[in-house]
Amino acid sequence: MSSVIIFGATSAIAAEAAALYAARGDQLVLVGRNPDKLAAIAERTGAIATFVADFDDLARAEAVVGEALAALGGCDIALIAHGLLGDQEETEHSVAAAEHVIRTNFTSVVALLVPLVNHVEQARHGRIGVITSVAGERGRPRNYTYGAAKGALGLYLQGVRSRLYPTGVSVTTLKLGPVDTPMTATHKKGPLFASPDTVAKQLIAAIDAGKAEAFVPWFWSAIMPVVRNAPEALFQRLKFLSGR
Predict the structure, then answer these.
(1) CATH number of the domain to which 128 belongs
(2) pLDDT at 185 over 60
(3) Are 157 and 130 in contact (CB under 8 A)?
(4) pLDDT digits (tens, 9 = 90+) for 153-176
(5) Are 148 and 104 in contact (CB under 8 A)?
(6) Nearest to 200 by CA among 8, 2, 1
């Protein structure tokens, strides 16, 4: 039995992950923004504690991590799953909108990671999984503000992973493709969209295996190197890649 903390537990993917962890007998502490959704997930999973938190409140991040760790007496696994897609065109015309997307997807995650990483480094024990996105692999007009934040997070996690390497603590960067969730409710769905339960199973497997990076679902590992490495002169002519 493992002790698990999930930050952003009210997202569709995190809720499925919580159910899978509960089904295998793990102890859960859930942290999320919506108290009603949080209570429903806690009832479904038998979580031992829940904490309501606004992740954009950076000044509270250290206290939130401390409270969650105290509820379990430490943790074996921590999953950070919150995020904000935002409106790309709005972020192009409003600094406040751009800052909001960057703060939620990058700065607020760093605010959680600083105390969490300090804890696992001292304990020399644990696994950390952080959800990022394939959008962070290449700047595209349709989502480059969101992608830039996720790309920065991926770079930050590379540094954390190397820092923690001597301790045996694993840090898994989970690069998700599009998932059929409320966050993408207004998006046209295609064959590359995955379901939350499929994604939850694969991300848990990646964290358990201590992988450094994992594309979820797995087939993005074949797609994204092509997208990432396409010469810009070619990339800009391929509207299915560079279009809105």
Answers:
(1) 3.40.50.720
(2) no
(3) yes
(4) 999 999 999 999 999 999 999 999
(5) no
(6) 8
Catalytic residues: 146
How long, in residues, is the chain? 244
Q: Are strands 27-32 and 77-80 parallel, antiparallel or unpaired?
A: unpaired
Q: In what order do the strands lie in the sheet with 27-32?
A: 49-52, 27-32, 3-7, 77-80, 127-133, 170-176, 213-216
Tell which residue, 18, 115, 10, has the closest CA to residue 63. 115
Cα end-to-end distance, the chain, whole Å:
46
Domain count, the chain: 1
227 vs 30: CA distance, rounded Å: 35
Domain boundaries, position 193: 3-242
Show the DSSP H helices in the chain as ranges: 12-23, 35-45, 61-72, 88-93, 95-102, 108-123, 144-164, 196-208, 220-229, 232-235, 239-242
Q: Is the distance from CB of 160 to CB of 117 less than 8 angstroms?
A: yes
Any idea of the CA torsion for 128, 126, 156, 222, to the nearest 10 degrees? -50
Tokens of 44: 């479904």
What is the value of pTM for the model shown? 0.93
Backbone angles phi, psi at 51, to 5 degrees: -135, 130
